[in-house]
Design a protein that fits this description.
The strands form five sheets. A five-stranded antiparallel β-sheet has the order 8-7-4-3-9, with no helix packed on it. It has a four-stranded mixed β-sheet with strand order 12-13-1-19. The chain has a four-stranded mixed β-sheet with strand order 15-14-2-18, covered by helices on one side. It is 21% helix and 29% strand. The longest helix has 23 residues. A hairpin with an 8-residue loop joins β3 and β4. By secondary structure, it is an alpha+beta fold. Among the domains are: 38 residues, no CATH class; 83 residues, Roll (SH3 type barrels), CATH 2.30.30.
Length: 360
């Protein structure tokens, strides 16, 4: 099946086109309908799962999201048949599900980490049936939280928290973040494993996404990445991708500053949830040694849009420190390239007509 990619654009002279706010979110990525830019949930088939087993999970989930039953069934069938046939880079089928650890917390057990020893950014390892994977803690859970990319949630309390861990894989002798996650408890984690990286990890461990400064209450993050293909699903469950070019991102960043939307921030794309933060620096990465990488360790590619925000709301800052908020997610109004070209063609025809009338 041919991969469908949609290039997105903005109309520079329309006030409603482009970014209208920046959200602090737990999972940055591009949202469906070209409106919100956060991670989209996928109900994915698990390894070895039969179609009937998958359907029993998938259909109720989509119905809960408000889709009619017949549409939910069609989407789930399409997903089961097509998942894995496209190169999406988000395959989590090989991850074992989280198993809640029975018994009391083993704080003094040899080789196992105590709750008060673990924090966001720590490198840890744990045991599975056939190997000892490694990873880095990205969030501490004291309630219930869905593990990104995996169809289960981890639960924790203040005394016995859960930990969401990004799995690292060894490539050419170096351990690198894989973008896959697992949930574990303290009594199953070994702390202080070797996890060398060939890039700098920002404060609190939010490498590639966010750098936080405790003293100044500042965060630095990538707002947009050029040519990044983000998977989406249409109303029929078919997978497609959207992306922005370097040129379009530069236009978006400039228009955002020109319209003075610097204080338009929120939490998780809820407009009424004011983040209590404002942008006071904005730039496009032009060289590999840009300060986004050399100072903040964001691993930002050339053409990326980076911003620096000051957080004035103490509750928002707590969420940044705890790892609940990991990066930025833009929201606004965008259109595909074909719609953009049609608009520009109509605009030119109108302008030419006006100029012609003026000469009469």
């Amino acid at each position: 099946m041919e991969k469908r990619i949609i290039d997105l654009e903005i109309i520079d002279d329309l006030e409603g086109s482009g970014v209208d706010a920046i959200a602090l979110v737990d999972s940055p990525a591009i949202e469906k309908n070209f409106m919100y830019f956060r991670a989209e949930e996928f109900v994915e088939p698990s390894a070895g799962e039969s179609e009937s087993e998958y359907m029993s999970r998938c259909v109720p989930t989509l119905i809960d999201e408000g889709k009619p039953q017949d549409q939910a069934v069609a989407i789930c069938i399409s997903t089961y048949q097509n998942m894995g046939k496209q190169e999406m880079g988000i395959d989590t089928s090989g991850l074992a599900p989280y198993t809640n650890q029975a018994g009391p917390l083993k704080k003094k057990a040899v080789g196992l980490a105590a709750v008060d020893e673990l924090s966001v950014g720590d490198a840890v390892s744990w045991k599975t049936a056939d190997k000892n994977p490694r990873g880095r803690i990205t969030e501490i859970v004291t309630g219930a939280k869905k593990v990104p990319g995996v169809d289960f949630e981890i639960q924790g309390t203040e005394e016995d928290p859960g930990y969401i861990i990004e799995i690292y894989e060894e490539l050419d002798g170096k351990w690198e973040a894989s973008g896959k996650y697992v949930g574990r408890k303290a009594d199953s984690i070994l702390k202080n494993v070797e996890l060398a990286e060939d890039r700098t990890v920002g404060t609190y461990g939010f490498a590639k996404m966010l750098f936080a400064d405790e003293d100044k209450k500042e965060i630095v993050a990538i707002a947009m990445v050029p040519d990044m293909e983000i998977p989406r699903k249409d109303k029929d469950g078919n997978i497609y991708f959207v992306r922005f070019s370097k040129g379009v991102i530069a236009k978006i960043a400039e228009k955002y500053m020109r319209e003075q939307r610097l204080a338009d921030t929120n939490i998780q794309h809820v407009d009424s949830a004011d983040a209590g933060a404002y942008v006071f620096e904005s730039w496009i990465v032009e060289t590999a040694d840009d300060k986004a990488n050399s100072v903040y360790g964001l691993d930002a590619p050339i053409g990326a849009w980076c911003v620096k925000l000051r957080v004035t709301n103490p509750e928002t800052w707590k969420k940044v420190k705890s790892g609940e908020l990991k990066g930025l997610s833009i929201q606004g109004d965008f259109l595909d390239k074909d719609e953009y070209e049609a608009y520009m063609k109509d605009k030119k025809m109108y302008t030419d007509l006006v100029n012609l009338v003026k000469t009469l």
